[in-house]
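Appendix B. Extra example for self-study. Work through it before the problem class; the solution is given directly after the inputs so you can check yourself.
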Amino acid sequence: MELDIINDSQKSTAKSESLIRTPSLPLISYKGQDKLALFFLRFCALSIFAILVLMIGLLFKMAMPAISMFGLDFITSSDWNPVEDQFGGLAFIYGTVTTSFLALIIATPLSIAMAIFISQILKGALSKVVSMIVELIAAVPSIVFGLWGLFYLAPWVKSTLTPFLKNTLGFLPQFQGPSFGIGILSASIILAIMITPTITSIVREIFNSVPQIRKEAALGLGATKYEMIRIAVLRPSLSGILGAVVLGLGRALGETMAVAMIIGNNPTISKSLFSPGATMASVIANEYAEAEGDLHLSALCYIALILFAITFIVNLAARTIIWHNNRRSQK
Amino acid sequence: MRSPETYFKIRKLKNSLFHLVVLISAICVMAPLFIVVAFLLQKGASGFNLDFFTNIPKPVGEIGGGMKHAIIGTMIMVSLASLIAIPIGLLGGIFLSEFGKGKIATLLRFATDLLTGVPSIVIGIFGYLLVVIPFKSFSALAGALSLSLIILPIVIRSTEEILKLIPNHYREAGLALGLPRWKMILFIIVKGHLSQLFTGIILAISRAAGETAPLLFTAFGSLYLSYNVKAPMASLPVQIYNYAISPYKDWQSQAWTGAFVLITLVLGLNLFARTVFGIKKLRRK
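Solution. Structure tokens for the complete assembly:
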């Protein structure tokens, strides 16, 4: 405080005698400097928030013509016809939801197993190397996965996986119909590959936070490693795993390029998983740059707004679950 | 009634079965990475020559076209995006870790979480609405702005997490020297942990370098070498996309080579950040 007083008196005379001012005393007091710095940081923080608000506002403004034209019928109609200015988004919502859930069904068991492998079975350097490999999968750009999916995975699905599924599960309507390779099933597999690292790394963290003493207690009672993992590691982590899975879902919902390249871009709803479809993100990627009419652009922005809302809700749910889980484990 | 011996055998069998299942799953998870890299090596390496880096595209049928324009375009836009996002991201992260209580911090944390989850295609639309419509032209500037929104939340998150790990006595020591808080933060907390902060920054940049969706209708892409940020600009991911969905074999093989270069760049940056700076972090401890 004393320093501040000296400083203030200094300041008042500084104007007239600025040349004589001793260099050891700063122009603005330390407290003032800190206030300025904090003000600046707050400004930065608020501007980041403002960008987000601006994003939602602009999307809303662009989507307005479509919203006022179609209202909530947009969500229940699957009639997408740019030529006749008729737009309904149900087919895309269906495509997004189907591919994402199918991807989750594939990715969840694999991710949990992978997390067990890294955190419970491997030790030391090997565990580090394997978890780095998993993180590298997350770093592969989605365009590369799309390219690979288009020229390698889709033909494989057509020639190998489809006949196999038809022979084993062909009695279900989901596994009937012709396969072109590209389609919902291929897109789901690509998505599963892409979200596995996300889920794995969170589940691995949860497993690592299980106290060592509980595992030792289980082993001390004579449990095999499998029983120990089931009782001491998996069971207390269930809610955390749920959070990780929901976060993976959020990532799958918004994934664009890989899906756009491999799903076939056909806005129809078909029971068969082999048939081509379209997702919300893929239709935006494919049609936005070439959209002719204003209403078409507006409808695409409407879809973007819905996609934004869905991912927002899903991410919020995931954060809440993980946050609750962390708080409980800290107790 | 089963005898204890058979019961024990069943338990041991279950245990072995479990290990087997986990091992197979782990292989299934890791296999795609190796298959993708192997495919890129096999298909992309054939077109991997000097022409690829020194030429711009030639008309279909003429050999010797390359992606110089796209590589330079990616570099320009990612650098611009970094220039915009990294300072703001660092400041945001510092704010969250050093002044992390209060309404504004909660607001920023919420915004960061939300921004991380926004699908990249929606960020692309935002870039279009914010820059392309007012200026009436696709531009590299719009692309860079969209990419900066990809980088920003990653940098904020990693900065916050790294700075939070620093023990409080560093801060107390700084304040005890009579430094103002901002000098303590800047010259002790931040300067002393630059290498860790760099890890987060490089990871964010490598992520942005591979993004396609935000560039599709902001920078749009072009077939010519351009340094003009107000004009459409090519980028490696968009160029790969356009070539991949084209019907020409020639262009498709160029797409493979492009993907090979892109994945080398992205995974290289990633490994570099994780290993080089990771080792430094260990040594410090």
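Self-check: DSSP finds eleven helices and no strands in chain B. If your reasoning did not lead you there, revisit section 3.
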